[in-house]
Design brief:
With 383 residues, the chain is an alpha/beta fold. It has two domains: 128 residues, Rossmann fold, CATH 3.40.50; 249 residues, Dihydrodipicolinate Reductase, domain 2. The protein is built from ten helices and 17 strands. The strands form three sheets. A nine-stranded mixed sheet has the order 16-15-14-13-7-12-11-8-17. A six-stranded parallel sheet has the order 3-2-1-4-5-6, sandwiched between helices. The chain has a two-stranded antiparallel ribbon with strand order 9-10. Helix 4 packs parallel to helix 5. The structure holds nicotinamide-adenine-dinucleotide (NAD). Nicotinamide-adenine-dinucleotide binds next to helix 1.
């Protein structure tokens, strides 16, 4: 019997557009999904750019206005991979048209937007997915499995950091990620939202936060476009950076204590996303730079034989691993998107709830909002 077809329209074709396109193209070659994916339309505002992207990324056609994608009756899933400022309008319109929405993170630029978007999706009665892809790394999924099986017992701490350094140079231009109206917030929204998602997923809901934010470089050279590309720089003109370069916060979540750090000023750290969980029966640690590995300290090991061991999460018994290569043949960043798309498409085809979905996106945004309010008020904020 032939499988049902799920037809996708993707809005945005640069960084995440490429990652998502690759996932749609490849996922059926690794997973036996209950539906076939048809990559119908990719959308961008620049016709020459989006036409070229359609060819390179494997889309049947292209559009230059996202409204065309939503109006297309053949399209089942609208994937929103644009900067945050456009998410709310596109997601709400897609949901109102009865489409399934897949959306990049953080879902909105403000909590009010996120509430509106979650409500629109709820009203549509359709499933949704949010691209918090790191929880789909096999080693992170293994940590989740062990926590759910009770192998860690009570969790005391989560210590999370997402560290980058790409704007530490004060000559780096004012791209969209450094503008509040485009990005919502800076390091907090962009990378802090990922560590919020992993912490919620592994440890539980945030109940209180206390944070502080800093913008180290307040003026930067203007760029010719807000498209994420550097464009032509206007000679000596500068503009104000309106987001945080770094945000740190402490939190109570799921009965545990958490520390969180999101910065783009950690020189030498290109994309270090790590956490350590300390619990009653042992500790777990993950580091994206060694993403196939999970470190495990087993407190029940005999005296004299205790210490962290490194588990390579590539065995057939490990989450997602059986879909790829023989044991020890490692996978990479792009596979986190394949795993997420596999789960999301399966959920859409079977009527199950996809995780993470818009409700997770909303819960995430509540934490980001609370951290911002805490930093502004220099006090603890309850959720
Ligand atoms: N899941 C992750 O790990 C991850 C990583 C990076 C970015 N993101 C998120 O993905 C989203 C996009 O980020 P990016 O890095 O891909 O940005 P990008 O600048 O590389 O690409 C943005 C794309 O959106 C298009 N676009 C912008 N406005 C549009 C509009 N009105 N209509 C149609 N197309 C439009 C641009 O032309 C471009 O193709 C953001 O929400 C970001 O936070 C997530």
């Amino acid at each position: 019997m032939s499988k049902p077809v799920l037809t996708v329209g993707l809005i945005g074709y640069q960084f995440m557009g490429r990652a998502h396109s690759n996932a749609y193209r490849q996922v059926g070659r690794f997973f036996d999904l209950p539906a076939t994916i048809r990559m119908k339309t990719v959308c961008g505002r620049n016709e020459a750019g989006v036409r070229a992207a359609a060819g390179i990324l494997g889309w049947e056609g292209y559009a230059t206005d996202w409204r065309e994608v939503i109006a297309d009756p053949e399209i089942d899933i609208v994937d929103v991979s644009t900067p945050g400022a456009s998410h709310c309008e596109i997601v709400c319109a897609a949901a109102a048209a009865g489409k399934v929405v897949f959306c990049e993170k953080p879902i909105g630029n403000t909590l009010a937007e996120a509430e509106k978007m979650a409500e629109a999706v709820r009203k549509s009665g359709r499933p949704s997915a949010v691209f918090h892809n790191y929880r789909k790394a096999p080693a992170v999924a293994l940590a989740k499995q062990w926590i759910e099986e009770g192998r860690l017992g009570r969790i005391f701490h989560i210590r999370s950091a997402y560290l980058q350094d790409w704007i530490a140079d004060s000559d780096f231009p004012l791209v969209w990620r450094l503008q509040k109206e485009q990005a919502g917030s800076g390091a907090l929204a962009d990378i802090g939202s990922h560590i919020v998602d992993m912490a919620r997923h592994l440890v539980g809901e945030f109940t209180e936060v206390c944070g502080t934010m800093e913008t180290f470089v307040k003026q930067r050279p203007l760029v010719g476009s807000t498209d994420g590309k550097l464009g032509a720089r206007a000679a000596s003109e500068t503009g104000e950076v309106t987001v945080d370069d770094a945000t740190v916060w402490i939190a109570r979540l799921g009965g545990a204590l958490g520390t969180f750090e999101a910065t783009r000023f950690a020189l030498g750290r290109k994309n270090l996303n790590r956490f350590e969980i300390n619990a009653e029966k042992g500790s777990l640690a993950f580091n994206l730079e060694r993403m196939n590995e999970l470190e495990w300290y087993d407190a029940s090991a005999p005296e004299g034989a205790q210490g962290f061991s490194t588990i390579q999460a590539t065995e057939a018994v490990h989450p997602y691993a059986a879909h790829y290569w023989p044991v020890g043949h490692i996978i990479g960043y792009e596979h986190t998107f394949l795993n997420l798309v596999a789960d999301a498409v399966t959920a859409v085809a079977t009527g199950a709830r996809c995780e993470p979905d818009m409700e997770d996106g909303l819960a995430n945004q509540r934490v980001l909002d609370a951290v911002e309010r805490s930093a502004a008020g220099r006090s603890w904020v309850s959720l």
